[in-house]
Design brief:
heterodimer; A: mainly alpha; about 60% helix; globular; B: alpha+beta; six-stranded mixed beta sheet; rod-shaped
Chain lengths: ~170, ~350
């Protein structure tokens, strides 16, 4: 198993230990789609990337604990994707059911200002809500770095929401 | 402020931890998640109570946490999930593989335009549009053109003939001389003759006019419908399905042997003025009907009566027998593009006043 350096963006290569046939991975579609949607801010891309990643996950020989693998692959996609000029602006409620009182505007603003590392850490921990252990393993960073990134992201996000509300 | 803070920072004492605002700000996240130990928690709370900037930072953090909490409640519709689960089509997989959605907009539009143009070209070349158009046009056209007459040529031909005279339709249907038709009795090559009672031979004359050729050509080139009961009018025979009974499709050129024939003759009688009406009545009695523009026994001149009619084939002999009463009858059978129905023949002859010179011919 290749162990990349801390904080690096290298992907995890997990040695195949056991192939589980017939595993149901469809429960990962929702969190993965939501992650791509918020990280890429593009509906079509979110669906296409989710499809590709799910297909890759099915064909892979990853053992049962494949959340870190998923986190690693999905984060890699976000790192490699350039920020698109088109953002979702209309008919967002048709396919993405927003809770009452949520305005996607602050997130759009936040998306432009924040770094990808901070956003990814924030999304996996506080939006998708994977366990911290899986997130740290998937992103290949330590706890302090992870908390630091989240803290900065939250402050920036809070600052935007605070300024919009006031 | 900073100097005061710097000066106020106490050194570490036993069982007491002091915290600067800088450290406090970095511990805010842990404090929000309640992950700090008691000592740090108390120190942070103390700073929070005293330091306004730390308070603001904490407020931002909590706002951010609340917002992310709302974001985590976003639901993905079943439609998207199903589309991802069921996305098995090769095209979609291929498009996802080549990351078509990530291509620049101009490139995407160009590729799509090229694809559409290619599809249109292939469609236009493969589908037989001309056949489809002809099929639809044939369905709409219910008319059947049976025969067409070129009346302009006929009018020009008629204008060259004698004015102020009602000429028969077939101006060419004059009695010919030196006819090459098949004689009905198989006698003389040039003429067919019934041996008259007085053994006088009557030579039939025939003339060929210029208009004859023109008319024959114009008729020969077109499809003809023979009318048994009605006269051929000057109106074009379009959409007159009830009138036409026989269509001869073999007529293509006037020079070919088309299968139609005509009996021609020229009779010389004495006192034609008296005899002509009798001949008229007899022809009518035998079932004869006019075949041209003029009536049977049309008075062409004071001494010439013109007969152009159709008669049942079976009555030909009877007619010839009757005409023998008055004169020698020589009817020449000639080929003609106009075809009569089976059992019907067409006869053209003139009855003229016999002169001394004509009687000897």
């Amino acid at each position: 198993m290749i162990t990349p350096q801390k904080g690096s963006k290298k992907k995890i290569t997990v040695e195949p230990e056991e192939i589980t046939e017939g595993r149901d991975l469809n429960y990962l579609i929702r969190p993965l789609t939501l992650f791509f949607f918020l990280a890429l801010m593009n509906e079509e891309k979110a669906i296409s990337e989710t499809t590709i990643l799910m297909e890759r996950l099915r064909r892979s020989d990853v053992k049962e604990n494949f959340v870190p693998y998923l986190i690693s692959r999905a984060s890699e996609v976000v790192y490699q994707t350039e920020n698109l000029k088109t953002y979702i602006t209309k008919n967002i409620n048709e396919k993405w059911i927003l809770p009452n009182g949520l305005d996607i505007g602050p997130w759009k603003e936040f998306h432009k200002k924040v770094s990808k590392e901070e956003m990814i850490s924030l999304l996996w921990s506080h939006v998708i809500k994977f366990t911290e252990q899986d997130v740290l393993r998937g992103l290949m960073i330590n706890k302090g770095t992870h908390h630091y990134r989240i803290s900065n992201a939250l402050k920036k996000l809070g600052d935007i929401t605070f300024s919009i509300n006031n | 402020m900073e100097k005061n803070q710097f000066s106020k920072i106490a050194l570490k004492k036993k069982s007491k931890r002091e915290m600067s605002s800088f450290f406090a700000k970095n511990f805010l996240y842990g404090y929000a998640l309640n992950q700090l130990d008691e000592e740090r928690k108390k120190a942070l709370e103390k700073i929070l109570a005293e330091d306004e900037s730390t308070q603001k930072e904490f407020i931002k953090l909590t706002n951010g946490l609340q917002y992310t909490e709302l974001l985590s409640e976003i639901l993905v519709s079943e439609e998207i999930v199903k589309s991802i689960v069921n996305r098995n089509s090769q095209l979609e997989k291929w498009l996802a593989k080549i990351k078509f959605n990530q291509w620049p907009v101009t490139v995407k539009w160009t590729m799509e335009a090229i694809f559409i143009v290619t599809l249109m070209i292939v469609t236009l070349n493969v589908i037989p549009w001309s056949k489809l158009v002809h099929m639809t046009m044939e369905d709409q056209n219910d008319n059947l053109i049976i025969a067409q007459y070129d009346y302009k040529k006929k009018e020009s031909a008629e204008s060259t003939s004698e004015p102020n005279k009602i000429s028969p339709e077939f101006v060419d249907e004059e009695v010919k001389s030196g006819a090459s038709g098949i004689p009905s009795n198989g006698g003389n090559k040039k003429s067919e003759s019934m041996i008259p009672a007085n053994n006088q031979q009557v030579v039939a004359k025939s003339t060929v006019s210029v208009a004859n050729k023109q008319d024959v050509k114009s008729v020969g080139k077109e499809l003809k419908a023979t009318v048994v009961s009605e006269n051929i009018t000057k109106e074009p025979l379009k959409a007159h399905d009830s009138v036409a009974k026989v269509i001869d499709e073999k007529i293509k050129s006037p020079n070919k042997v088309s299968g139609g024939f005509l009996y021609r003759g020229q009779l010389y009688v004495t006192n034609v003025e008296m005899i002509a009406p009798k001949i008229n009545a007899k022809i009518t009695e035998f079932g004869g009907r006019k075949a041209g523009e003029v009536e049977i026994g049309w008075k062409k001149t004071n001494q010439v009566f013109y007969y152009h009619f159709t008669i049942p084939d079976a009555k030909l002999k009877d007619l010839q027998e009757y005409l023998k009463i008055y004169t020698d009858v020589k009817l020449q059978k000639e080929t003609h593009p106009r075809i009569m129905p089976d059992g019907i023949i067409r006869i053209i002859f003139t009855v003229e006043e016999k002169n001394m010179s004509q009687g000897q011919k």
